[in-house]
Amino acid sequence: MRELIAVKGSLTAQLERFGNVEVTLLWQGMARPSADEALALGEDPRRWVWLREVILNCTAGQRIYARSVMPRLMPGPWASVTRLGAQPLGRLIFAAPDARRGPLAVARLQGEEPLAWRLYRYGEDAVPGAWARRSTLMAGRQSILVTEVFLAASCREVAEGELASR
């Protein structure tokens, strides 16, 4: 589990080591960011941003919820972010030669956070105890804030797999 949380490159590429990764698009469109998301991006919380929420499903059983928040206008190579649909964001981002991930902020969800409530609305009930991380993905002068929640079932499966391989 620690190995997945600490990934500095593409989480999608790391998950593909375990099997195929499919993306279930939960929601995408224009929205206002939460206050902490706006602060992390240096955006005005009253400004509209592009928001995308997905579940990454790995054939090996891992499930990761991902919430991506980006400035409304994404020029250049990331302009296609708004048309990704069921394609992984990581493939687009890390195709840029200068793509990098900012520092990771990691927390364990207690189940009462706004992020947890978002997951409950999507029918996820294994939220308490799940690990979450947030970082900013950057290339050139563009940035996308990505929050990922390693859903409890995937946490146990990955941890058991890591223990078995030692």
TrEMBL record:
Q: Name one GO molecular function term.
A: chorismate lyase activity
Q: Name one Pfam family in it.
A: Chor_lyase
List the InterPro entries hit by this protein, alphabetically: Chorismate--pyruvate_lyase (IPR007440), Chorismate_lyase_/UTRA_dom_sf (IPR028978)
Which cellular component, as a GO term, is one annotated location? Answer: cytosol
Q: Which UniProt keywords apply?
A: Cytoplasm, Lyase, Ubiquinone biosynthesis
SUPFAM superfamilies membership? Chorismate lyase-like
Could you tell me the Gene Ontology terms of the biological process aspect for this record?
ubiquinone biosynthetic process
The residue range of the signal peptide is: none
Transmembrane region(s)? none
PANTHER family (alphabetical): CHORISMATE PYRUVATE-LYASE (PTHR38683:SF1)
Query: By what name is this protein known?
Result: Chorismate--pyruvate lyase
Task: Say which species the protein is native to.
Answer: Halorhodospira halochloris (Ectothiorhodospira halochloris)
